[in-house]
Structures are given as C-alpha cells and as structure tokens.
Amino acid sequence: MQSDTPDLAPPGTAVDAGGATANFAAAAGWVSALVTSIAEPDWAAPALGAWDLRALVGHTSRALLTVEQYLDRPAQRVDVMSPAEYFRRTRGATGAGPDEVHARGVAAGDALGADPAAAFSRIADRVTGLLSGAGDPTIACLVGGIRLSDYLPTRTFELVVHGIDISRAAGVDPAPPRPALDRTAALAAELAVDAGDGPRLLEALTGRRALSPGFSVLG
C-alpha cells in the first residue's frame, strides 16, 4: 500500500538541512555582493560562452528562483536521493539542452530590469528569507521529489560555479565562502567518480596529467 506521506530518510542517513541552508545563504550573499561591484558599462561585456554578463547573472539568479518555485510544490515521495543523483537525472532532461539553457539565461537577465544588481539582491534576500524555519520538506523538482536538504546543495553548486564565472568576467579574484566552496568541490568530485572519471580527476589534481579540453563533470 502506497503511503500518502513523504518517505523518511533511510536509517543511518544524516539529513543536514541546517548546513545546506547555511551554505546556500552564504553563497547567495557572496554572489549578491559580487554583482553589486559590476560597473554599468560591463553588463553587456562577454562573460561565458554566448552569454554577456547580464545573461550570466540572470542565469545565476535562477539558482535562487527555482528554490522559491519548488518550495510551493510539495511532493508526496522522494524520487531523487542525493544532490549527485539530481545532476545525473537532469542530464538530457527535457528543457536541459544548451540552446534552451542559453535562452532562459538571456530572459532571466532581461527580467532583472534597469538595475540588475539591486534586483538580484532582492531575489537573494527574499529566497533566503523563505528558508528560515522551512525545515526539510520534500519538494517537486524537474526530475521528481527531492528533500530540500538535497536540492539546496545543487543550487549552492550553481551559485559557487557561476559566481566564479562572474568574478572572472568582472576581473575580480573569486573568493566564495569556504564551506560552500568545500561542499561544491566535493560534489564535483563525486560526480566525476560516479561517471568513471575519478582516476583522471585525481591524476590532474596531483599533477600527473592534464584533463582534456572541455572536460566537465556535468557531462
């Protein structure tokens, strides 16, 4: 008989909702501060691939907005058991193609309006505020039900990685919050190992051989 209540964590599983929330909030605050340093003429400067800086910041804002969206979409069961599984499942998902991702980033950048830095900061403040007292609900994301504590690290990953992209495009040395950076780096390594690229990654990190051009743990 199928239960109408969300699945509980398996025995022995530690659900660190507080740590996931703290890392997400710290990463959001870091990117908000970074975005405020962008000078007006630089918003149209090339940033990442086909994106200019406005589109890149717009894309990054979606790491916040999807949290807000999914908090309003409770799920009755857990389908996605970890942040790494989320990334595995979203590879090749409907709407995840590069052209679609690019278009959403451009649209999100346009939606930031005349003062994109202020708009980004308002979004960050609003979304992190929603997490206060939210606990660890099971929410419905793109690929099924997932605990908030497992979804937030995927958004922290996006904030940290794209925060570094924004830093490079803006000519600023990237300095993401250490706990958020630690968790993001660990998740990236987990994705590499899961994909069979653990030895290659370890060889690169220990100076034995370089990774091939364009290598990505995101597939």
What does this structure look like?
- The protein has 219 residues and is mostly helical.
- The protein has one domain: Four Helix Bundle (Hemerythrin (Met), subunit A) (Up-down Bundle), CATH 1.20.120.
- 57% of the residues lie in helices and 6% in strands.
- The strands form two sheets. It has a two-stranded antiparallel sheet with strand order 1-2. A two-stranded antiparallel ribbon has the order 3-4.
- α1 runs parallel beside α6 (148-170), α3 packs across α6 and α6 (148-170) packs across α7.
- The termini are far apart.
Secondary-structure map with pairings?
Blueprint: H1 17-36, E1 46-48, E2 51-52, H2 53-71, H3 83-90, H4 98-111, H5 116-131, E3 138-141, E4 144-147, H6 148-170, H7 178-194, H8 198-205
Antiparallel strand pairs: 1-2, 3-4
Helix pairs in contact: 1-5, 1-6, 2-4, 2-5, 2-6, 3-6, 3-7, 6-7
Which topology does CATH recognise? Four Helix Bundle (Hemerythrin (Met), subunit A)
- In whole angstroms, the N-to-C terminal distance is 38 Å
Largest sheet: 2 strands, antiparallel
Q: What's the helical proportion of residues?
A: 55-70%
Helix vs. strand class:
mainly alpha
The total beta strand count reads 4
The count of helical stretches stands at 8
* Domain unit count: 1
Overall residue-averaged pLDDT value? 91
CATH class: Mainly Alpha
Determine the strand fraction and express it as a percent band.
Answer: 5-15%
The run of helices and strands is HEEHHHHEEHHH
Dominant shape = globular
Spatial strand order of the main sheet: 1-2
Uncertain residue segments = 1-15
CATH architecture: Up-down Bundle
Radius of gyration: 18 Å
